[in-house]
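Why this split exists: single-chain examples teach little about how molecules sit against one another. For that reason, every record in the complexes split bundles all components of an assembly together and asks for one structure covering all of them. Below is a record exactly as it appears in the raw files.
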Amino acid sequence: MSKKRILVCGGAGFIGSNFANFHKDNYEVIVVDNLLLGDKRNLEEGVTFIEGSVANEDTLNKVGPVDYVFNLAGTSSQPMFNGDGLVEGYVNSVESFMRVLDWSAKNGVKKVLYASTSSLYANNPLPLVETQRVTPPNHYAVTKHLYESASRCFNKVHPEMDIIGFRFMSIYGPNEEAKGQYANLISQFVWDVARGSRPQIWGDGTQTRDFTNVRDVIQGATLAMESDKKFGAEVFNIGTGKSTSLNEVTDAIYKAFGKENDTEYIENPVKETYIKDQHADISKIKKELGFEPSVELSDGIKEQVKNLRMDRIRQTSSDLMRQK
Ligand SMILES: NC(=O)c1ccc[n+]([C@@H]2O[C@H](COP(=O)([O-])OP(=O)(O)OC[C@H]3O[C@@H](n4cnc5c(N)ncnc54)[C@H](O)[C@@H]3O)[C@@H](O)[C@H]2O)c1
């Protein structure tokens, strides 16, 4: 029997490449990526790579028929929308997502998965739950809010194609080097210590995030992709359900390097909109899909430290936006 086929849009990037590599033996996996932030070297042998934008129908037509699509393409963090990036950021995110939905429906795709974001929740009360009312706090979050609304409208016209969104918490893991200054705080801090500089924490380090290893994103997305349940247009949180402070993170990083903690603390330059605490309510994805977070943060950090690839980091930066 021939293998089922998955198209991973934005699959040379951090999350997409981890997902593509994980499935390369059991599925035929095709990645389309315009390399805005991705790196072809993230992809293992056996994954087919097509360079180009998923906003371009001709590029998508090169892929041929697929069973599933996972869209991770788009402008992937708020600082990219700053200054001249604003219009380009919106156009790229919205055009690519709508093209992917339209192409998928025209080509008989069974299910589309896509990345939304926990940034939608801003400083909502904890734990963050899918039923909460959300007010996107920035342009990046607005694009993901639009993805969720557009998916619901689209699914009314094409009920045969499920469209499932994931509100990822703070995701870390391998293959983030091409994101450079936009990479997760854990990668940034690990790289700081590796190059002999001090990680810089804004404030006193008691702020928390729901740090989630990319392997648990693969788990959640795979459960959704392979489920026989019919969901329509649905959104799930993916996280661990736990808050971890930045102090705990830098402790674990220095411990993994076998060094004394030498973190630097500076005044937090972002006052009102700064997210103080974060953790997800993951009961929906547990109940509907059987998801169970599986990677301990200290183990994930040890792996990051063991598998450093400093030569692949796209740019070094102490960009002030990075702790947002
Ligand atoms: N990493 C996280 O913690 C996190 C949290 C919440 C949401 N997300 C969302 O998940 C998705 C993936 O995140 P990531 O961390 O892997 O980001 P990433 O930037 O590493 O991956 C996005 C990939 O999409 C590609 N791309 C961008 N526009 C494209 C286009 N028009 N056509 C083809 N390829 C295009 C980029 O080159 C990149 O490889 C993003 O949408 C991001 O907003 C990520």
